[in-house]
C-alpha cells in the first residue's frame, strides 16, 4: 500500500496570503468609504439646517429674602420664571442636567436647583420656574462692604445662571451632548431702611446664551 502526500509549494502559500490581504484591503476601503459618506451626509445636513442657539427670556423674578444672619452668613430666597424658545424650524432640542443658581459678583448666594429634562420641538416655547434658596450661605468678609456700596447706589446686581447640556435632533438623528450656559442679569432695588424685608419683584430681560 502506498501513501499519497499532498505538498503545498511556498509559491502557492504566498499566493493565498496575497489574496487574503487583498480581501482585507477591500473590506477596509469599503468600510472607510461608508463611514466617510455617512459623515459627509450628517455634516451636509448640519450645514444646511444651521441650527440657531435656543433663546431665553427672564419673565419675572421675586426676591423674598435677602439678609445677613451674621457678618459672614447670608440668607436668600429667589423665585423666577424663565421662558425658553427654540427658533429652529427643522431642529429639535433636548435639555439635560439643567441646574439653576444665583450669584453676586461671581460668588454663589443660593444652592443649585435641578430642573427636569425636557424636549423642545421646532419653534416651541417652554416656561421654566425655579425656586432658589440659601440659608446661612458662607460669604467673604468683604461681602457686606460690597453690598453697602450698592445700597448707596440703590441697586443690587444679581446674576441668575442656568447651565446644563443640550442635544440636537434632526429627523431621527440625535447629536451628542453640548454644554449650555445661560446668564441673566437682574437689578434688585433696596427697600426703605436697607436690605429688602418684603417680597420685591423685578422685571427680567433677555439672557445671553453660550453653547
Protein topology:
Blueprint: H1 10-49, E1 55-70, E2 73-85, E3 92-104, E4 107-108, E5 113-115, E6 118-120, E7 125-138, H2 143-153, E8 155-170, E9 173-174, E10 178-189, E11 200-203, E12 208-210
Antiparallel strand pairs: 1-2, 1-11, 2-7, 3-4, 3-5, 3-6, 3-8, 8-9, 8-10, 10-12
N- to C-terminal distance: 84 Å
CATH top level label of the largest domain = Mainly Beta
Number of domains: 2
Oligomer: single chain
List low-confidence stretches: none
- Tell me the major beta sheet: 8 strands, antiparallel
Examine the secondary-structure arrangement and name the CATH architecture of the largest domain: Sandwich
Instruction: Give the helices and strands as they follow along the chain.
Output: HEEEEEEEHEEEEE
Global structural class: alpha+beta
What Rg is obtained from the alpha carbons, in whole angstroms? 30 Å
DSSP summary: helix tally: 2
Shape: elongated
Could you tell me the mean pLDDT?
80
CATH topology of the largest domain: Immunoglobulin-like
Helix content class: 10-25%
Q: Beta-strand level of the residues, as a percent range?
A: over 45%
- Give me the count of strands: 12
Characterise this structure:
There is one protein chain. The protein is an alpha+beta fold and 211 residues long. It folds into two domains: 11-50; 55-210, Immunoglobulin-like (Sandwich), CATH 2.60.40. The protein contains two helices and twelve strands. The strands form two sheets. Strands 3, 4, 5, 6, 8, 9, 10 and 12 form an eight-stranded antiparallel beta sheet that branches. Strands 7-2-1-11 form a four-stranded antiparallel beta sheet, with no helix packed on it. The radius of gyration is 30 Å and the shape is elongated. The N and C termini lie far apart (84 Å).
